[in-house]
Each structure stands twice: as C-alpha cells, then as structure tokens.
Amino acid sequence: MGNLVYLNGELVEKENARISIFDHGVLYGDGVFEGIRAYNKKIFKLSEHIDRLYDSAKIIMLSIPLSKEEFKKAIIQVCKANGMEDGYIRPVVTRGVGYLGLSPWNCTEPSVFIITDSLQLYPVELYEKGMPVVTVPTRRNSNESLSPIIKSLNYLNNIMAKIEGKNAGVEEVIMLNNEGTVAECSGDNIFMVKKNKIFTPPVVAGALPGITMASVIELAIEAGYSVEEKYFSRAEMFIADEVFLTGTAAEIVPVVKIDGRTIGEGLPGKITRELTKKFKSYVDSHGTPIL
Ligand code: PMP
User: Which of 42, 45, 151, 162 is catalytic?
Assistant: First the structure.
C-alpha cells in the first residue's frame, strides 16, 4: 500500500499529514466519514458512499468544500497514487479549525482528508464456522440524540460496545436501541432468516443505512427471497434459522451463537452461504475503476 494521503487538496506523505489540535474534529468529534473498499483496482459503490457522506454532512450542517464529482476524483487520485488494488479507503471531513468554544461558526474551512490502507478483516475461520456474538449494555444512539444514520466522528458508544464485546471474548456485538429491540452491530448491520424469509431492522430502529446491507437486500430479492424491514427482539433472534452481519470490511459474516444460544444448526446457514457466493461476483460489476 502506498504512502500518500489526500489532505485539503494535496497529496502528502502519511507521516507528514497533520491537522490542528484546534480542529473541531479533534476537539469535539465534529465531522463525518466513510469507509469504502477497493476490489481488484475498482472502488465498490463509490457513488453510494459519496452520497452517504454528503447526507451525513447535510444533517450536521457541514458544507463540504468540494462537489461530489470533485470528491470522487480526489478519492481516485489518492488510490491511483498509492497503486491501490485491494484495500480500504477512509474519507473524513471535519468542521475544521476553530476556537475552544463549541460553536461551529468559528470554524472557517472544513478539513478534508482521504486515507488508504490495508483492510482489517475478521479471522477467516469465523466465515467458515460462523461467529459467536453477544448483545451489549451500551445502546445505539437514539434518533432524538444523535441519529444513527449520520456516519459521524462520534463513534464513542460503538467503541464502548466494542470494549464490552472484547471483555466477553467476541469480535462483534449486537446493539439494541432504547426500546430494547435490535438495532445493528458496532460496525455492521444485522439480518435474520426465519422460514426462508429475511428480516433486518429498519434504519429508524437505530441502524446506519449500510451500503453492503442495500447490496445484500438487492441480491436477496433478485434470488426470489422476501426481505422485510421489521423491528425484532433478542428473543426472536435466538429462535431464528440464520443470522448474519453485513459491512464493507466484513462483507457477509454468519452468526452461530448469540448470548450463549446456538442459532439454527450452529453452522453458517444455507441462505447466508448462497448470498455470500452471489456477493463475491456482485462486487466485480459494481466498481469504479481506479484510472
Ligand atoms: N453500522 C455501522 C455503525 C457502521 O459503522 C457500518 C460501517 N462499517 C455499518 C453498519 C455497515 O455499513 P456499510 O455496509 O456501508 O459498510
């Protein structure tokens, strides 16, 4: 992986890339980001990620100083400069440099940076044998506090959830919302299968509108399955036939144990495996070439 990042319009060496300690991204987590994946010199669903970045920014009234087309070009530029083939791309936009006060109006120019890196993946055996997960005490942000549809730099409750998962010895965790229904995971969306029907919580239950989630829904409908967005509880998950998670880095991960209960047969399920196979070829036809 190459050694350059995009920082406010320029390509700079990673070790020389600096932002101010007065940037409100640093002081207050005031900013938004994306996590994008490149497969075989193509950027998966670039436009969808850019749309989500601009949606996140719009909600927090952060005006990104580039057009969407310019942003896409900047991403392609840094990928190209780094000779990116397969990897991870992290665009970040912060409110920029201001004073110590909360007020965003003191920040004149947002900071924009784009990092490319290798992927942090779950261990392969979790895909083969399935992953055990637990539900954690930390709840997903409520819509009334910080909407989970904003991919903001405030990920502290997801980090708390991750710590709770680590303490329980698992790689990923299920987060509930304040009503106690299932929202999503610390960095992945969640699906369950019951009697050949596929369910996922609606975004309003506390989920990020995942790009992988949308791709999997599209593939499942194409394969003739019924997919329904529905609120469901922990107990309903325990008696599901299959549960799986989706995310940019994770792709599709089978879940075989939740809070000590074995899911289905305790192995990756039939529909999970079918969708995983379809997803592998789907990524080939949904990429923007790094040219
Ligand atoms: N939920 C959260 C909280 C996330 O941060 C992410 C992204 N890692 C996802 C779900 C999955 O979204 P995507 O498929 O777009 O990566």
Answer: 151
CA dihedral 159, 66, 56, 7 (to 10 degrees): 0
Same domain, residue pair 153 and 259: yes
Model confidence pLDDT, tens digit, residues 201-241: 999 999 999 999 999 999 999 999 999 999 999 999 999 99
Task: Name the residue with the closest Cα to ligand 1, atom 8.
Answer: 187
Query: Are both 43 and 158 inside the same structural domain?
Result: no
Q: Does any domain span residue 172?
A: yes
Per-residue pLDDT tens digits for 78-88:
999 999 999 99
Atom of ligand 1 at shortest range from CA of 148: 3
- The domain tally of the chain equals 2
Please give the residue range of the domain that contains residue 70.
4-117
Among 98, 136, 122, 115, which residue's Cα sits nearest to residue 255? 122
Q: What span, in angstroms and rounded, lies between the C-alpha atoms of 285 and 287?
A: 6
On whether the pTM is more than 0.90, the answer is: yes
**Pocket perturbation via mutation, ligand 1, pick of 162, 208, 211, 253 by most ligand atoms within 8 A of CB:** 208
